[in-house]
Amino acid sequence: EDQVTQSPEALRLQEGESSSLNCSYTVSGLRGLFWYRQDPGKGPEFLFTLYSAGEEKEKERLKATLTKKESFLHITAPKPEDSATYLCAGAQGGSEKLVFGKGTKLTVNP
Amino acid sequence: NAGVTQTPKFQVLKTGQSMTLQCAQDMNHNSMYWYRQDPGMGLRLIYYSASEGTTDKGEVPNGYNVSRLNKREFSLRLESAAPSQTSVYFCASSTGLVSNQPQHFGDGTRLSIL
């Protein structure tokens, strides 16, 4: 069964304290690994798509990387406005379906 | 820049009542999706429509029906609401995962069933 597991479930950081979120996946014929940000009361907002092992993408303080078994979202010198739940999802081969993880809730304290 | 618009934003129903959740997108996307999000469960796909005129079941379709009214609109209907369907419902659209394009989400409908 296809599965995406995110860890930790929750993470508290001080402003400026860098860290990484993990997304482990077993998705048949993975065609893409997606990262989203979700703020309270809002829908998920697209951040990145990674297609192949070794690929990296960056946006401001965020950098996403992909291996054959997992993806990492690295947050460098976070600010309070980076506080959100971060979701990862795998696209199944030959399908319109995304398999979502349960998310990591990030809190950045000033 | 409306993107994906969902109505209503909030709704309270009694058990057994019926309701239709509306979703419209203005990005000329082919594919549309309905998810539910529950605490500790993550996003689960209910139904999707890969193109106008087609619909397919997702992971949790029981108790729901959908209609792809045209390319812009995709509605979700609860025929006889049950407390287990209390959830936040999200609609999304995409040019299509076959092309590895991301899904874009609306801000959800918060549904409570008493």
Give the strand tally of chain A: 11
Helix count from the secondary structure assignment of chain A: 0
State mean pLDDT of chain B (0 to 100 scale). 93
Distance between termini of chain B?
35 Å
Query: Structural class of chain A, please?
Result: mainly beta
Which word captures the global form of chain B?
globular
For the largest beta-sheet of chain A, the strand count, sense and barrel status come to: 6 strands, mixed
* Unreliable sequence segments of chain B: none
Most extensive interface, residues per chain? A-B, 23 and 26 residues
Contiguous runs where pLDDT drops below 50 for at least 5 residues of chain A: none
Mean of the pLDDT scores of chain A? Answer: 94
Q: Roughly how much helix do the residues of chain A carry, as a percent range?
A: under 10%
What is the number of E strands of chain B?
11
**How would you name the oligomeric state of the polypeptide chains in this document?**
heterodimer
Strand content of chain B: over 45%
Approximately how much helix is present in the residues of chain B? under 10%
How many helices of chain B? The count is: 0
End-to-end span of chain A in angstroms?
41 Å
Q: What sequence of helices (H) and strands (E) makes up the elements of chain B?
A: EEEEEEEEEEE
Hey, roughly how much beta strand do the residues of chain A contain?
over 45%
